[in-house]
Amino acid sequence: MANSSSNIDQLSQSQSSKEITINALLDAASPATLYGRRESTTSGLSWGYYGGTIMLGSTTTQIANGTLTLPANATSYIQANPSSGAVTSNTVGFTAGYWQMYIVVAGISTISSYTDNRVLGQSLTGVGFANPMSASGDIIYGGAAGAATRLAKDTDGTVLMLAGGLPVWSAAPWMTNPMTAAGDLISGGASGVAERLPAGTTGQVLTIVGGVPAWAVAPGGGSGATIGAVNVFTRNQSVDPSLLTSGSSIAVDASLSNNFKLVLGANATLANPTNLTDGMVLNVRIKQDATGNRTLAYGSAFKFPGGTPPILSTAANAVDLMSCYYDSTDGTLACNLSKGYA
């Protein structure tokens, strides 16, 4: 860089052939003009730029002088692809990771203003750092004063950790799996050492015996309910009803419950339920609103005795109960309607 005592050639008023000195100075400074605005090829909505020489990776690449046609009445962001050096523009913003060139504001037919966003050394010079890696699997980390330093790969199963503030490969610090069979669990033994707890038998529950987890018979001697087996319950078992929404077509999701409640606020059709399973029972409590005389039609899956759909009770606030059994082979619901619950 030139200071008050300049080290670059100076022009004097009496000097002849000033253009020779000026051209020589520009030639020496030409790397700084890379991607700079080229006045001689910038006109109307055409933006000219200077090319030059850059390093792409380890390859010296020549970028030619070029032009871009910018859109009218828009702000364009001119940028260069760091992988190819190619110059592009868009009206959204600079693409992450791309080299920023200019922000250009254009009117109907001409460029009205521009801002130079080029930064000396923003990877355009190709000056990065020497690659310290020498083998497949190596990685680079910041060593002393941030110097790029090679960390050689290690053996399978090791993990990257910090030691003394620097990354190192190390054996995994987590526990070894003590389980050997399906259904095993892991429990904490002496001093928290991971120990295997073998699977218990059907119906057992996990409890604490002598301060450690163990399988045991369920409290009270019972084994609880078992899927796929006959079970005897000594207390009530109920299913929360799901509320249906009144409308011209009423949707029923059978996965939500076996029991449903509906208050009719308009004439409607009860659509074929979704998510039915073979053998399920579906109960629908149907109530007229305070107006009454609402009618209900049924989807094609609903079947009734004699093939005739029933007519609801019509009195205001009247309650009917429809119970259905689903057969997946026929894809139908065999239904009965009990009417007039006062």
Give start-end ranges of low-pLDDT stretches. 123-127
Number of strands: 25
The total count of helices amounts to: 1
Mean pLDDT: 87
Seen as an oligomer or otherwise, the chain set is single chain
**What structural class do you assign from the helix and strand content?**
mainly beta
Major sheet, described briefly? 6 strands, mixed
Shape: flat
> Major sheet: order of its strands?
17-19-21-24-25-23
The termini sit apart by 100 Å
In helices, the fraction of residues equals under 10%
Strand content: 35-45%
For the CA atoms, what is the radius of gyration?
41 Å
List the helices and strands in order: HEEEEEEEEEEEEEEEEEEEEEEEEE
In short:
This protein has 342 residues and is mainly β. Helix content is 3%, strand content 36%.
Account of the 3D structure:
Strand 13 and strand 14 (194-197) form a beta hairpin. The termini are far apart. The longest helix has 11 residues, at 18-28. The strands form nine sheets. Strands 17-19-21-24-25-23 form a six-stranded mixed beta sheet, with no helix packed on it. Strands 6-5-7-8 form a four-stranded antiparallel beta sheet, with no helix packed on it. A three-stranded parallel beta sheet has the order 18-20-22, with no helix packed on it. The chain has one helix spanning 18-28, and strands spanning 46-49, 52-56, 59-63, 66-69, 74-80, 87-90, 99-106, 111-116, 139-142, 148-151, 159-163, 166-170, 185-188, 194-197, 205-209, 212-216, 242-243, 249-250, 259-264, 268-270, 281-288, 296-298, 302-303, 319-327, 332-341. Among the domains are: 32-116, no CATH class; 195-220, no CATH class; 242-341. The protein is mostly beta strands and 342 residues long. The protein contains one helix and 25 strands.
